[in-house]
């Protein structure tokens, strides 16, 4: 089945789906995006993802490409046309197409909007979660506004590639003080030896993860002990458990950091339970 993409008002076979070479997303990475999980044909945490998209647009002073209700329809139609039951839907918005020049294009320049959807194999992701993943740590070389979900992801790309080359699935980015900020495409968590869940507080140095916020709701519901604070790489090495969260994999146990085993090199109880319960707390629409 050929895949269909939504581009600026039209649904096109992927081979015909294009944006211009002067698009500011291509020229300057002047754009934002969202990734939302699709489960059983429904969107997971759509409301929070759309609120974050609006926040990213506002912070970069970009126009909203269409009313939220229209975007909701386009996302669903893209999912339907690609027959995605389980997978992800991507929404990308750039500041549009205009002769290359650094300042913003004239007011009224239409933003570029691309929506794509693709299936994944839940059994494969579950198998990965049952085994747990390895992560490596690398210096965080990103700019100071990574709370904006922009398409400028070069440091994340390089970190992820390094992870793959070292046999790991994810790279944890580390600030100048030796503390983990987040994963290249996920939020980083540990569970300390005395059973306290820890993740970094929101700020300019991490993306406000949607899965992170739902896991925090779950932690509150279950009355688990939780501290929102930065943790060092050393603390992570000594942790009882570690895991990452993101829309595409919900809660994914980490069993190795920089080649050192975490726990017994097996997924921890806390991460496994949070993974099991995630979609009971997430909003499916
Ligand atoms: N990545 N941190 C970064 C740098 C991310 O790119 C992501 C998500 C997250 C987790 O956010 P959320 O829980 O809202 O997915 C944290 C998506 C999945 C991606 O770019 O593919």
> How much helical structure, as a percent, in the residues?
25-40%
The assigned structural class equals alpha+beta
Q: CATH class of the largest domain, please?
A: Alpha Beta
The total domain count is: 2
CATH A-level architecture of the largest domain: Alpha-Beta Barrel
How many helices? The count is 8
**Mean pLDDT over all positions:** 97
Ions, cofactors and other ligands present here are: N-(5'-phosphopyridoxyl)-D-alanine
Overview of this protein structure:
With 285 residues, the protein is an alpha+beta fold. The protein has two domains: 4-120, D-amino Acid Aminotransferase, Chain A, domain 1, CATH 3.30.470.10; 125-281, D-amino Acid Aminotransferase, subunit A, domain 2 (D-amino Acid Aminotransferase, Chain A, domain 2), CATH 3.20.10. Helix content is 30%, strand content 27%. It contains eight helices and 15 strands. It has helices at 24-28, 46-59, 68-81, 122-131, 154-165, 210-222, 233-237, 269-281, and strands at residues 4-7, 10-13, 31-39, 42-43, 87-94, 112-119, 133-139, 170-174, 180-183, 187-191, 197-199, 226-228, 241-246, 250-257, 260-261. Strands 7, 8, 9, 10, 11, 12, 13, 14 and 15 form a nine-stranded mixed sheet that branches. Strands 2-1-6-5-3-4 form a six-stranded antiparallel sheet. A hairpin with a 2-residue loop joins strand 1 and strand 2. The radius of gyration is 19 Å and the shape is globular. The protein starts with a strand and ends with a helix. The relative contact order is 0.15. The model has no long low-confidence stretch (mean pLDDT 97). The structure holds N-(5'-phosphopyridoxyl)-D-alanine. N-(5'-phosphopyridoxyl)-D-alanine binds next to helix 6 and strand 13.
């Amino acid at each position: 089945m050929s895949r269909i993409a939504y581009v600026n008002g039209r649904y096109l076979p992927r081979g015909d789906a294009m944006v211009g070479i002067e698009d500011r997303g291509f020229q300057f990475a002047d754009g934002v995006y969202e990734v939302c999980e699709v489960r059983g044909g429904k969107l997971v945490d759509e409301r929070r993802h759309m609120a974050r998209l609006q926040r990213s647009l506002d912070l970069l002073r970009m126009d909203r490409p269409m009313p939220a209700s229209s975007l909701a329809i386009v996302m669903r139609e893209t999912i339907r046309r690609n027959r995605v039951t389980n997978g992800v839907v991507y929404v990308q918005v750039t500041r549009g197409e205009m002769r290359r020049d650094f300042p913003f294009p004239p007011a009224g320049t239409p933003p570029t909007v691309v929506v794509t959807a693709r299936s994944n194999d839940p059994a494969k992701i579950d198998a990965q979660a049952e085994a747990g993943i390895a992560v490596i740590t690398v210096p965080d070389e990103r700019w100071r506004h990574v709370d904006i979900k922009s398409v400028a992801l070069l440091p994340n790309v390089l970190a992820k590639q390094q992870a793959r080359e070292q046999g790991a699935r994810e790279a944890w980015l580390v600030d100048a003080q030796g503390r983990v900020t987040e994963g290249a495409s996920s939020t980083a968590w540990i569970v300390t030896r005395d059973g306290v869940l820890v993740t970094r507080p929101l700020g300019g140095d991490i993306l406000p993860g949607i899965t992170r916020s739902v896991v925090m709701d779950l932690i509150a519901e279950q009355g688990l002990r939780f501290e929102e604070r930065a943790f060092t790489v050393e603390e992570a090495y000594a942790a009882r458990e570690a895991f990452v969260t993101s829309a595409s994999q919900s809660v994914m146990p980490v069993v190795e950091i920089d080649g050192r085993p975490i726990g017994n090199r097996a997924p921890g109880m806390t991460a496994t339970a949070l993974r099991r319960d995630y979609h009971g707390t997430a909003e499916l629409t």
